[in-house]
Amino acid sequence: MKLNQLLSYIFFLLAFTAGSSCQKLDRPGMHDFKNDPDNPGGILKFYTAFDKTEVDSIKANFGTAVNATYVDGVLGKAYKGASNAYINYPSANDFANATSFTIAFWMKQTPHDNGAEFIFALPTTANEDLRSEVFFLVENKGQSTPELMTGKFFLQDQWFVFGGDQRLKNILNDQWHHLAFTYDEATSKLGTFVDGVALTGLPPGLTDVKKGGAPRGKLSFDKVSGFIIGGPASLALNKPYDSWQTNYTGSLDQFRIYNKVLSAAEIAALYNNKQ
Questions:
Q1: CA distance 201 to 189
Q2: CB 194 within 8 A of CB 178
Q3: Domain regions of the chain by residue span
Q4: Can you tell me whether residue 183 is helix, strand or coil?
């Protein structure tokens, strides 16, 4: 009887050891994602810190980086663009379902010689002209200086042009600056923030979002396909585009997209905490 018990015990030890050995087989390493307080079901729908990688850390969305390099950022490392550089993501996760939004990022740039540089674009197959639902671009030296930047925000066939007397101040001075854009479906208003502070006193052409002449209300992104950082939307669709559309040559850091309107205090916190 004791012999049988001893044999059973030995057999158990051998089986346990074999099972443990199997569990130690080599497996592909997981990416070292940067922690962020949100989760896939939260309000932060897309976030990349560009910390030597292009990966979005909300849903481990692996973008394809083309000629991208990384430099010192406002926090850790940052993406450095070039005339032939951009990042192509399969999507901006489920941001396409958003009806309001906040888009926030840090940028560092000087006035450039080439055409309009696209910082980001949300591509769509529904718009044959610009192939975008949303984008933001920076105009060249002919319209921008270190003290006054001409920027253009595009939202569903409507242009919001920060030009002339409405140019954005002290952005292209080779220093890091935080920009945030919000859209509130309840008011159909676009909000613009620079370095944590809301721009006030803007004309209706820079705040009122319309559809058919009426307040737009809830957004509805149709036929969204991919997401581009550092270039125009056509790069995601393998479509030709006009020569005035060029890739962003400056630096970007802490790119965030939310499916809600952040409060002024929340946007100020992003700026103050270099997020």
A1: 13
A2: yes
A3: 44-272
A4: strand
Query: Whose structure tokens read 């270039």?
Result: 231
User: What digits encode the pLDDT tens for the residues 214-223?
Assistant: 999 999 987 8
Q: What is the mean pLDDT of the chain?
A: 87
Which stretches of 24-97 are assigned E, i.e. beta strand?
Answer: 44-48, 64-66, 69-72, 77-80, 86-89
**pTM of the full predicted structure?**
0.85
Query: Which residue matches tokens 């890091």?
Result: 176
Token reading at 41: 């079901």
How far apart (Å, rounded) are the C-alpha atoms in residues 119 and 116?
A: 10
pLDDT at 252 over 90: yes
> What is residue 4's predicted lDDT score, i.e. its pLDDT?
46
**H or E stretch at 159:** strand 158-162
Helix H or strand E encompassing 266: helix 264-272
Q: How many helices (H) and strands (E) are present in the chain, helices listed first?
A: 3, 20
CA dist., res. 178 & res. 171, Å (int): 9
Kindly report, residue by residue over 32-56, the tens digit of the pLDDT: 434 444 455 699 999 999 988 888 7
d(CA 48, CA 184): 23
Look at residue 6 and tell me whether its pLDDT is greater than 50: no
Backbone CA torsion sign across 75, 76, 82, 88: negative
Pairing of strands 116-123, 245-247: parallel
Neighbours of 104 (CB within 10 A): 23
**Which residue has 């319309």 as its token pair?**
210
pLDDT value of position 34: 43
Closest CA to 48 of 1, 82, 87: 87
Q: Over the range 214-247, which residues count as b (16 or more CB within 10 Å of their CB) and which as e?
A: eebeebebeebbbbbbbbbbbbbbeeebeeebbb
Q: Which CATH architecture has domain 44-272?
A: Sandwich (2.60)
Residue 26 or 63, more confident? 63
